[in-house]
Design brief:
Elements: H1 2-23, H2 37-50, E1 57-61, H3 62-69, H4 73-79, E2 90-91, H5 97-104, H6 114-118, H7 120-128, E3 130-132, E4 140-142, H8 155-158, E5 159-165, E6 176-184, H9 189-207, H10 210-240
Antiparallel strand pairs: 1-2, 3-4, 5-6
Helix pairs in contact: 2-9, 3-4, 7-9
Amino acid sequence: MHKLKTFCVALALFASMGIACAQEGGYPEANANIADRASLQRGARLFFNYCVGCHSLEYLRYSRIAEDLGLSEQQVMDNLDFTGAKFGDPVISSMPAADAEKWFGKAPPDLSLEVRAKGADWVSAYLHSFYLDPARPVGWNNTVFPNASMPFPLWELQGVQTAVMAPARPGEEAAVEKLEIKQPGSMDPQQYDQAVRDLTSFLEYASEPAALKRTSMGAWVLIYLALFTFAAFLLKKEYWKDVH
């Protein structure tokens, strides 16, 4: 018993240390919600209007988007298909890889598994952290992913941010202290936060479309287990009623 208590205390300490490490230096919560169909629809519209020109979702088909997001084939093909793809095709960017490598130094990555790889919080923080940097070939930089080769596709929504640099110590490069909006965009900060939440939710859905059905089935599985447990309890009582 003493060993068990010691193990439980150690486990609790490790868990608390993990939580503290996650909070220290972590990114703000994205608050993405793949169960919010309206948010997924808005996120899909943002992705196809601002991202698909460079980035693909090669593991996701237009037909699957229609099924999961409650859209008709006509709605998807009229509003989300800008490449002439067929309804059953995967989402592939129209940008030739060779041209992308010439313009940006490397071909933009496929985003099918971006949230699975880096987390929703990282993606949300990344989309909040672009700032104008004339020294960069693409004209932009990012505090979450410094020196990224990606221009900021959502600048007209968020506006143009500039960096306020912290005083540099001798022998060290100046670091970004904070970001400030110098040119407002078409959205206020609250609207832009919601737009990023919608886009992040859609990318989280794209990373694992089956999660929607798995989540909806969870309640039925719990109900089944509860009924099975109750039936097993009654069966046990019936078998053991004559045993003293």
